[in-house]
Structure to design on (160 residues):
């Protein structure tokens, strides 16, 4: 029996013996166990005992997909980045998490930290669009026309 299966049976036994366990919970627990089989299970020491910690491998990817869709719809965006005639609604927290440049801008006493509209003079509108798409998707479609945009990744926006 694999370590994952052993941990699952131990968890099942401990849940079944708990006072909140009922017969109707059995089917719910079985479906949960099936869904958790796609997750990484890592032990963690809590209160002196080893407990399984479940980590879904796709969680961060799916969260960023949702944030990108919300950005496209203008939902919960708290800043608008402007380059030329292009205006891109964004989430400050996403920008700050993915770029040291934006982290410094939004967490220090700069006027931009409280601004809802930030005009970026130094960047081409198409480059800004590509960079923001990259921040939210971690993908960039490199072409001969946009290959120079990558220089902004490390230098201007401090994105690795």
């Amino acid at each position: 029996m694999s370590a994952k299966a052993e941990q699952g049976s131990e968890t099942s036994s401990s849940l079944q013996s708990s006072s909140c366990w009922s017969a109707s919970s059995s089917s719910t627990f079985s479906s949960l166990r099936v869904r958790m089989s796609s997750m990484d299970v890592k032990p963690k020491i809590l209160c002196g005992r080893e407990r399984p910690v479940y980590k879904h491998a796709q969680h961060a990817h799916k969260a960023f997909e949702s944030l990108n869709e919300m950005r496209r719809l203008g939902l919960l965006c708290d800043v608008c980045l402007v380059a030329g005639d292009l205006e891109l609604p964004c989430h400050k927290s996403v920008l700050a998490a993915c770029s040291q440049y934006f982290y410094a801008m939004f967490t220090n006493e700069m006027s931009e930290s409280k601004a809802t509209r930030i005009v970026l003079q130094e960047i081409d509108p198409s480059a800004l669009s590509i960079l923001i798409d990259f921040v939210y998707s971690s993908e960039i479609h490199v072409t001969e026309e946009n290959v120079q945009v990558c220089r902004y990744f490390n230098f201007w926006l401090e994105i690795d």
